[in-house]
Amino acid sequence: MSGPILVINPNSNPAVTAGLDAAMAPFRMTGGPAIECLTVDQGPFGIESQADSDAAVPPLLQVISERTDAAAVVIACYSDPGIDAAREATTAPVFGMQESGFLTAMARGDRIGVIAISERSILRHRKYLRRMGVLDRMVAERPLNMSVAETASGAGTFARLLSVSEVLAQQDHADVIVLGCAGLSAHRAKLENALGRPVVDPTQAAVAMALGAVLAQSSL
Question: CATH fold of 98-201, please?
Answer without folding.
Answer: Rossmann fold (3.40.50)
